[in-house]
Amino acid sequence: MPFPDPTPPSFRIQIRYWIRKFLPPADLERRAEVRGQLREEAQPDFDYFVLVVLSSMIATLGLLTNSGAVIIGAMLVAPLMSPIIGLGLGSLVGDEKLLRYAASAIIRGAIVAIAISVILTWFNNALPFVTLQELPAEVISRTRPSPIDLLIALAGGLAAAFALSQPSLSAALPGVAIATALMPPLGTVGIGIATGRWDVAGGAFLLFITNAVTIAFASMLVFFALGFSLGRKDGKRVPRSLTISALVTFTMLLPLTFLSISFFQEATKMREINTVITEEVSKLDAELADDPRIEIDDNGIIHLGITLRTPRQLYHSDVDSLQESIALQLQETVAIVVNQIVVAQLDPLIPPTLTPTPTPATLTPTASMTSTTTPTRQPTSTPTPRPTSTSTPTPSTARIQNLFNNHNQCLEMHQDAGFDHPIIGRVGNGSFVTVDYGQRIVEGLVWVEVKDQDGRLGWLPQVCMQTITLTPTKTPTISATLAAEN
């Protein structure tokens, strides 16, 4: 009697076979050791908070100074990594004590890290150690999470959990901590709160949540494959906690994808604007001195701030033509402000040619004697007015003194009174300007209207000028006249 053909194994059994072949389950002793290690490292004790404070300080200062090396140092401390992995293991095996420790450590550690970052940023702005005219690139890069960040956190979480479960791979944990940065996003949240940039704080907090949730889910996958789950013994079902974690992780893809599309559209728009600006500026025989400042208001108007290096003085018609050309290219409403720096190019191999300036000669006519007969007129008396003196007002001259050694604010002429107004030109330190009669007080500084040696009218702080005042002279007037002609 022939035997029936054996039933081929199902696809699920085949997958389990290959996983068992390449990833054998951990023994009972190793599983207990990993659980005990995570339970100890996930406790929010004094040592844990010391590491949180120090890591937050390093991350915040690295972000403020835009130093990638300092930020990497904060990643290496990584006090939040163990509680997040512990949260994944506790959810998988149903360890309530480990869950409680890990959740408390994550929440309290995140609050402490954000508070430290806010305090350091306020302290920096008050002194300041580092002047934050614009947010550093290291801060901006952590405000726009994308699905790529989720994939990085997923790979990092898998590597961290696997290295933790294998004693021979513990040396890989520092590298994993760098890849799955947890503290820099919290530092960025604090900087955003301290500077009033809630968009920055919100984007960075979303990045932290993405990293934390994804790392916890990845650690659950590894521990499930290594046989840490209680439901793993019968092999009949996947633990419910793992399913919920997977759903939460993949739900995070929705806002990340939406933000990525929005950021891509914004980046494409900015690149188009920059390309058009560069093309139109080159037509003026000028070049960009700095990256253009681009802002789009709620009405869709594109506000551009452009600083140019030009070999000649630009006129209003040039700027008006530039604005029209950019608006025509973009098919958008554009408002433009141009700051120009007039430069001269000198080549040491080609010396300047001296051109003599001819002096025009003026012929002075010679007076000749003439004889004339003057009729005799009777003397007349003129009423004698009282002597009066009139002052002749003349514009004063001032010498420029750069009192701000680290900045050139004393050398920058503004279109109107105040540092917020556009810069229309620069004057040399020690040069002379003519002081007109315009005078205003803005933010505690007295501003005066001046004219430089090139004839440009602008405004400078009075504290930066050493005024040379001419003494008013009296113009004598004839008090009495007695005319008699013979």
TrEMBL record:
Low complexity biased stretches: 360-396
Chain segments carrying region Disordered: 354-396
Database matches in Pfam families: DUF389
Coiled-coil annotated spans: none
The keyword Hydrolase belongs to this UniProt entry's keyword annotation: no
Transmembrane segments: 46-64, 70-93, 105-127, 147-164, 171-193, 205-230, 242-264
Xref: InterPro entries: DUF389
Keyword RNA-binding: no
Keywords: Membrane, Transmembrane, Transmembrane helix
Family matches, as PANTHER family: AT15442P-RELATED
Annotated protein name in UniProt: TIGR00341 family protein
Natural source organism: Candidatus Desulfolinea nitratireducens
